[in-house]
């Protein structure tokens, strides 16, 4: 691992490009083993570049795994001494400030298992260029601040009737030898990372959308023939997203055609290539029979996310990859608001905050901790993180909260207008927000540069004589790797005060009952006058900032908030705090070898929620869900895996036993035989019904398991079937589980998305998903190590969502994961580097586990020749 160490790249070293590419003309002659790529570039000296003192600098073109065939300038073949091929690219001597460069090279898409650049998925050609994949296609200044007009010609055998690229189709025909030829032109200048090409035997569904200014846009969704019936939901979602972006942000679509393609082999969720989005099949294809409600909602949000990038990402793009959150944080905020408007706002917020608290907080506290705008990286692919995406979205949300919706809109209008067609920075975004509103976000900017999760400690006091209530808030952000002694941040803390009757107290003359306190000091007091009784504070409403908030709530106060808080998020959060208190106490009892005591306060709280017919069933379902083992681990200073598992199972069983009649009544009431719909109200009903079913089955009583058996047998939709099967796998007798799994597989083996669900049900099951079974799944005929979805379902499910089996005391789970990571790194470095995450947190575990995890990690480090991706994560985790 010592020699050939990857280089660290720093934000402070940024320099504008020496040369610009005004036009990029590409021709692809497709072949699995020998695709010929010709590129013709109009190159021009960048007037903004440092002139230097020794004439024209050499031109650097990135290029990886390319076979160079020829280089010409202004139509003349270049002699070899004028250029130099080196690792990572090509250096070219330049004689004139403007010239036309022609390069020819060969690539082998069939051998490309990294799924970056041009590759084959089920026999179809597709590309993935973000962040630095274009350099695996041809030699090019592969950096986002080089924006160019692209013209792309694709030549392929007649067995690939669909040939797609960005923009508009401007020409098509047949070559003399009978192959197909199509030319596309994208009129909008873009960086190479937004380039895309697709070629295959694909079917499509088509629709149209009329924009607010009356232009008709053609919408096409391409898939393999077998999936053509799974496109409707994505198409409807797309049209909703297009309308929403016009209404909420005033953003209209800009080309005459918008295409989406579904591919089975894909590293991420989807990609926003200009006019030609490419999607992981699992994030676009759905039908009621095959997709769960969770999948329907995920598809709606990802389709919207990619569409929204057309403005926040494509029309205005990033100057460099340190600015990634400029497009991702903003676009995640946009898609979250869209989903909130389309469904239940509170439930969407609860889901997002759960991810943040479980995984982003863990990232912030781990060895890969970095700010929303990182200041260095070895491999940019490692920085498509929860911090850049999710925390980045929280940062944009806080600007929205601080400025208010109208001011935020003025800021976003100015941002899009001022920077249209440009590659810009997070700083430019903040400045636009300030300039449009005459606002000052100077201190707020620290959110972009400081890593770590701030902790707020809140104390209060009430002065009865003066009628004064005071909140004293301290903030502190822990040290993170390479960053010490953090400065105070500007933190919006949305607050209400509840009276003894559960109603909000008026906070001013005008009768406002909610206020956003702006915390800017390390310690600050906020005084409320005219308060007639000692109130109970409802703090950080709607999770107004991505922080850990500590206030010493008593159990009865949390029960009170669960019943009365008018902020639905905080109502849910009160229940979570109650559960966390109970689970923390039980862990202590477990480790002391004491008998575990029934959590009565929690059970009472849950009973009141379950009996409350006035609440949205989706919210009730969320309120009845215990924090996951992963989230519990994130809460602990030192993680004792066995204690977490024991406490959580004990609480779950206690609730199930105590409230069985109530769960049964609610299950029966919600179990209606109505045809499937993906409307929010129906999704809500199914989510509570299946939450009840899971608790019922946790009793392991046969009458409860029979409910699951009959729900599975009815097979009305995949949400109900998968929930029932999941409950049987987790709580039913093993032979029973095995038989249901087998017949489910027989029924669905032709359907890739269902098979992924089926893999996941097994790998994540605390009782059924043992290491032995997971190893068997790796040998299953439907498993492919080269398909990221399958890897995530089986290996990822086990290592990231099966806390009990993965953390077995003998360390077998850790050794298994390191074996898989080592094997994967040879095929797909990006996936290997993501999958290793659970091992990187070893320092947080109690000594015996920590030692085992560390040695599994060391074994990876010692196996030599690691990819840059895996090297960065492993070496930072061990240092
Ligand atoms: N830019 C994509 C998105 O968030 C994510 C992505 C990154 C996809 C890198 C592929 C590769 O929408
Ligand atoms: Zn994105």
TrEMBL record:
Keyword Calcium in record: no
GO MF: alanyl aminopeptidase activity
Superkingdom of this protein's organism: Bacteria
Peptidase M1 alanyl aminopeptidase C-terminal domain span: 555-878
UniProt keyword terms in alphabetical order: Aminopeptidase, Hydrolase, Metal-binding, Metalloprotease, Protease, Zinc
All copies of domain Peptidase M1 alanyl aminopeptidase Ig-like fold, residue ranges: 452-552
Cofactor: Zn(2+)
Pfam families cross-referenced by the UniProt entry: DUF3458, DUF3458_C, Peptidase_M1, Peptidase_M1_N
Enzyme Commission identifier(s): 3.4.11.2
Catalytic activity: Release of an N-terminal amino acid, Xaa-|-Yaa- from a peptide, amide or arylamide. Xaa is preferably Ala, but may be most amino acids including Pro (slow action). When a terminal hydrophobic residue is followed by a prolyl residue, the two may be released as an intact Xaa-Pro dipeptide
Cross-referenced CDD domains: M1_APN (cd09600)
Residues annotated as domain Aminopeptidase N-like N-terminal: 99-194
Domain Peptidase M1 membrane alanine aminopeptidase: 237-447
PANTHER family attached to this UniProt entry: PUROMYCIN-SENSITIVE AMINOPEPTIDASE
Family the UniProt entry places it in: Belongs to the peptidase M1 family.
Name this polypeptide is given: Aminopeptidase N
């Amino acid at each position: 691992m010592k020699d050939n160490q990857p280089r660290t790249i720093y934000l402070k070293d940024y320099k504008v490009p020496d040369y610009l590419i005004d036009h990029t003309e590409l021709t692809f002659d497709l072949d699995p083993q020998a695709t010929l790529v010709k590129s013709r570039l109009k190159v021009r000296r960048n007037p903004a570049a440092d002139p230097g003192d020794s004439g024209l600098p050499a031109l650097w073109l990135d290029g990886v795994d390319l076979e160079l065939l020829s280089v010409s300038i202004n139509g003349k073949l270049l002699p070899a001494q004028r250029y130099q091929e080196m690792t990572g690219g090509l250096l070219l001597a330049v004689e004139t400030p403007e010239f036309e460069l022609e390069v020819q090279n060969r690539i082998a898409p069939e051998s490309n298992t990294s799924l970056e650049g041009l590759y084959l998925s089920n026999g179809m050609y597709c590309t993935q260029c973000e962040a630095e994949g274009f350099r695996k296609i041809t030699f090019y200044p592969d950096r986002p601040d080089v924006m160019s007009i692209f013209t792309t010609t694709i030549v392929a055998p007649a067995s690939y009737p669909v040939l797609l690229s960005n923009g508009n189709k401007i020409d098509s025909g047949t070559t003399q030898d009978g192959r197909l030829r199509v030319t596309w032109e994208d009129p909008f200048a873009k960086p190479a990372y937004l380039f895309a090409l697709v070629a295959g035997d694909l079917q499509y569904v088509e629709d149209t959308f009329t924009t607010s200014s009356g232009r008709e846009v053609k919408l096409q969704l391409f898939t393999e023939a077998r999936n053509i019936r799974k496109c409707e939901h994505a198409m409807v979602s797309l049209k909703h997203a297009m309308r929403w972006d016009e209404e909420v942000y005033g953003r209209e679509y800009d080309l005459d055609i918008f295409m989406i393609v579904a591919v089975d082999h894909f590293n991420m969720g989807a990609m926003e290539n200009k006019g030609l989005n490419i999607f992981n099949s699992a994030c676009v294809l759905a039908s009621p029979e095959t997709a769960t409600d969770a999948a329907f909602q995920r598809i709606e949000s990802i389709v919207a996310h990619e569409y929204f990038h057309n403005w926040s990402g494509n029309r205005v793009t990033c100057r460099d990859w340190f600015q990634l959150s400029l497009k991702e944080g903003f676009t995640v905020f946009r898609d979250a608001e869209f989903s909130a408007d389309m469904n239940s706002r509170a439930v969407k917020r609860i889901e997002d905050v759960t991810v943040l608290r479980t995984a982003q907080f863990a990232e912030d506290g781990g060895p890969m901790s970095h700010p929303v705008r990182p200041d260095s990286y070895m491999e940019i692919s490692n920085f498509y993180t929860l911090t850049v995406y999710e925390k980045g979205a929280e940062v944009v949300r806080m600007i929205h909260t601080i400025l208010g919706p109208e001011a935020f809109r003025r800021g976003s209008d100015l941002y899009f207008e001022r920077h249209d067609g440009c590659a810009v920075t997070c700083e430019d975004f903040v400045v636009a927000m300030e300039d449009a509103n005459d606002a000052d976000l100077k201190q707020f900017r620290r959110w972009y540069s400081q890593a770590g999760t701030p902790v707020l400690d809140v104390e209060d006091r009430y002065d009865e004589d003066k009628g004064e209530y005071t909140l004293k808030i301290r903030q502190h952000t822990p040290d993170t790797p390479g960053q010490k002694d953090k400065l105070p941040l500007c933190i919006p803390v949305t607050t209400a005060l509840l009276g003894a009757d559960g109603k909000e107290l008026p906070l001013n003359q005008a009768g406002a009952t909610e206020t956003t306190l702006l915390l800017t000091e390390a310690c600050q007091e906020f005084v409320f006058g005219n308060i007639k009784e000692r109130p109970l504070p409802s703090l950080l409403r709607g999770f107004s900032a991505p922080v850990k908030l500590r206030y010493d709530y008593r159990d009865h106060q949390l029960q009170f908030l669960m019943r009365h808080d008018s902020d639905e998020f905080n109502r849910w959060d009160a229940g979570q705090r109650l559960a966390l208190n109970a689970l923390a106490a039980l862990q202590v009892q477990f480790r002391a070898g004491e008998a575990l005591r029934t959590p009565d306060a929690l059970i009472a709280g849950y009973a009141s929620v379950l009996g409350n017919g006035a609440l949205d069933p989706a919210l009730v379902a969320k309120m009845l869900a215990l924090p996951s083992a992963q989230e519990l681990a994130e809460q602990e200073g030192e993680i004792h895996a066995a204690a977490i598992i024991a406490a959580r199972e004990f609480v779950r069983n206690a609730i199930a036993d105590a409230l069985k009649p109530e769960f049964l009544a609610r299950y029966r009431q919600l179990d209606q035989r109505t045809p499937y719909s993906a409307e929010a109200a129906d999704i809500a009903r199914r989510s509570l019904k299946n939450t009840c079913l899971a608790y019922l089955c946790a009793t392991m009583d046969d009458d409860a398991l029979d409910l699951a058996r009959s729900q599975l047998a009815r097979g009305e939709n995949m949400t109900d079937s998968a929930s029932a099967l999941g409950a049987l796998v987790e709580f039913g007798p093993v032979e029973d589980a095995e038989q249901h799994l087998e017949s489910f597989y027989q029924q669905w083996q032709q359907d890739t998305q269902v098979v992924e669900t089926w893999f996941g049900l097994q790998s994540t099951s605390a009782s059924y998903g043992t290491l032995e079974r997971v190893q068997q799944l790796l040998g299953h005929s439907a498993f492919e190590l080269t398909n990221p979805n399958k890897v995530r379902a089986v290996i990822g499910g086990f290592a990231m969502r099966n806390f009990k089996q993965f953390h077995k005391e003998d360390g077998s789970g850790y050794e298994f994961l390191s074996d898989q990571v080592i094997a994967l790194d040879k095929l797909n470095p990006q996936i290997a580097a993501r999958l290793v995450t659970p091992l990187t947190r070893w320092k947080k575990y109690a000594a015996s586990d920590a030692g085992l995890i560390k040695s599994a990690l060391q074994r990876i480090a010692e196996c030599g020749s690691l990819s840059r991706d895996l090297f960065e994560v492993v070496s930072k985790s061990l240092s």
